[in-house]
Amino acid sequence: MLQIKKTLTLAVAASTLAIAAPALAQDSGATIGFIGGFTGPIESLTPPIFAGAELVVKQVNEQGGILGGELKLLSADGACDATAAAAAADRLINTDNVTGIVGALCTGETIGAFNGSGLSGNVVFISPASSAPALTTLDDNDLVYRTTPSDALQGVKLANLLLSKGINDIAITYVNNDYGKGFADAVSAAFTAGGGTVAANLAHEEGKADYRAELGNLVASQNLVILAYANASGNTILRQAVESGNFTTYVGGDGMVGNDLLNGIDAAAVEGLIATRAGAPSGESVDIYNGFASDAFKADATYAPQAYDAAFLMALAIEKNGSTSRDGLSAALRDVSSAPGEIIRPGEWQKAVELIKAGTDINYEGAGGSLDFDAAGDVDGIIVELAVEGGAFVEKGLID
User: Fold this and answer.
1) What's the pLDDT tens digit per position in 318-341?
2) The pLDDT value given to residue 384
3) Fewer CB atoms inside 10 Å of the end CB: C or N, the chain?
4) Rounded to the nearest 10 degrees, what angle do helices 304-321 and 284-296 cross at?
5) Which fold does the domain 16-148+281-370 belong to in CATH?
6) Is residue 9 a contact partner of residue 78, using CB atoms and an 8 Å limit?
């Protein structure tokens, strides 16, 4: 992806992480927000993603803070729902007066939060997990970014992976929202272009207890692709598909990657289940992140590296911008995330601050890879294959 520099100049209560020396002045520092689905269909995936952002705050404050003070992180539950996310964003932006937002996670959640208060508040959003292609075309005044690749890429990689395994026909069921439809469209187009047959491609509604009728319309193929969420319809559909005995191969996308997916399901019945999610290339930045992240939470947790990168970039942009003003933050974000500049790796906060104060350009190389945002705020990336082995997801490697 070409580098493009700046082209435009249970419910969970709010939680605060502030680790800093008590002598810091109250009129210094910065506060950022985090919106994620602490409840709802991705509630098992959200805690480690949030932990990735929390880790940045801890490191920043241990290394001298931001703008001469402490960095604070306030969280709000978006419930993977546009309406709930809009309310969460309104509080963080208009009451708590955060400078920027890490999040949201589900694509509809991000769009709802941003359209609700983000655009009018001139607030930069950096999502670590919103992967639907719909975000690329959002009218956002250069304010919405993401540190994970679009499902336009993940869909192609998943389709190619299945074809490479000799799977030549599939039936797709997808959750009826921006994430599900965008992902399904990408998989279907790429699979067909590669010579495969999509026997069925049908939406399903979230929150139902019984999907047997929907599954009855998918039996034209024994290879079932479920594009949904582990804590919600993904689990129910997978369980009822296994019970039906009509399918032999099961496939999921990133929203299905969580051990909660297998609740109530005989693990042996889904041994070898194929899945995909965003990954990271090998290299120094990834090794550094994996070293310290493993002490705080599972380093390979889905979207935790991307959340770490989103929070680190937000902090770098605020420091580069020189104030907690929202004006100019988008341009500062583009400056710190791409060449030219001295490379900054995960954890190197003090080094970055010293270079910024010296007027030296920096280029953050993150836990999830390079983060050269294009004009739409998207990044290139890689997709990895996972499989269920022995009742748990195991990463198998990069998908070519």
Assistant:
1) 999 999 999 999 999 999 999 999
2) 96
3) C
4) 110
5) Rossmann fold (3.40.50)
6) no
